[in-house]
Write a structure and sequence with these properties.
There is one protein chain. The protein is mostly helical and 184 residues long. The protein has a domain of 110 residues: AhpD-like (Up-down Bundle), CATH 1.20.1290.10. The chain contains nine helices and no strands. The chain is globular and about 55 Å long.
């Protein structure tokens, strides 16, 4: 149970309720977070728009972005983030639960390329201690084949996961509520 209860749908104005409903399937794995965010409609709308644009557009594919989310949630020990994004990976990519658990523990998967491993190492470092990022970290990514826009995109995914992990943890969102609610 969240520390701040989400409003009932009857409490929410019609326009906001319609926005919530329109994203309910797409963002099913984040339903608990979205419901609490309806207490602050500007944050709700910003989060929906930001999440869609960051996770579904850009140069990196959605699967890799979700892997980054799981890796970062693992570093931060955010159970809600692990359940939501790990569930998405299991549902949509065929990743086994044991593989998601491995990612959460900081392990790489055999199916990952060397460049993806470099990107995940960078993401984990930033998730754990962003202030320790140095020029060599960026050069390592460049050496692994990533250009500046792609590095910025990956960093944006890491940052989005930080915001969502912090929010979910501060509110005590229940990872068990995520099970069975994975978005298409």
């Amino acid at each position: 149970m969240a520390l701040i209860a989400p409003p009932s749908l009857e409490e929410v104005d019609g326009e906001l309720r319609a926005e919530y409903e329109s994203g309910r399937v797409r963002f099913a794995h984040l339903d608990q977070l979205r419901r609490v965010l309806m207490r602050f409609p500007a944050a709700f709308r910003a989060a929906d728009g930001m999440y869609f644009l960051i996770m579904e557009r850009g140069r990196l594919d959605r699967e890799l972005k979700e892997v980054i989310f799981v890796a970062c949630s693992g570093v931060r020990e955010c159970r809600y983030g692990l359940a939501a994004h790990g569930g998405w990976l299991i549902e949509h990519t065929g990743l086994a639960p044991s593989e998601v658990e491995s990612l959460a523990r900081g392990e790489d998967l055999t199916r990952q390329s060397e460049s993806q491993r470099a990107l995940l190492a960078f993401a984990r470092k930033v998730a754990g201690a962003a202030y320790r990022t140095v020029e060599q970290d960026i050069e390592t990514l460049r050496g692994a084949g990533f250009d500046t826009p792609t590095i910025v995109e990956a960093l944006t995914v890491v940052s989005l996961s930080g915001w969502m992990n912090g929010y979910a943890d501060a509110l005590g969102l229940d990872a068990a509520e995520v099970v069975g609610k994975v978005a298409p």
